[in-house]
Amino acid sequence: MCISTRLVGCSSYVLIQDPGVTPNSNGLPGLSALKQMAGALVTFSLVICVGALVISAAAWALGSFSGNTHYAGKGKIGCLIAGGAAIVIGSANAIIRFASGIQIN
User: Is residue 85 domain-resident?
Assistant: First the structure.
């Protein structure tokens, strides 16, 4: 299917090709196993983020308590990074659904 659009200020037409390819859930035999592995990877990643947040918070607290500003600063940065990573990992499905415009089951 060709769609012709006229460019503003030009006298020629540009043809835009639509290949008609859409995602499907029955194209590959191992797709369900791949979905399960991706779900397990999300779980492992979130557990790692929780561990990193705990370690960073402990470093922040110990650095603040002992007066070591370097450790306290690195702990703060670690908490921000671990929290941000957890937010991105947890909302990965919503981000992909928003960006692609398809329904993810």
Answer: yes
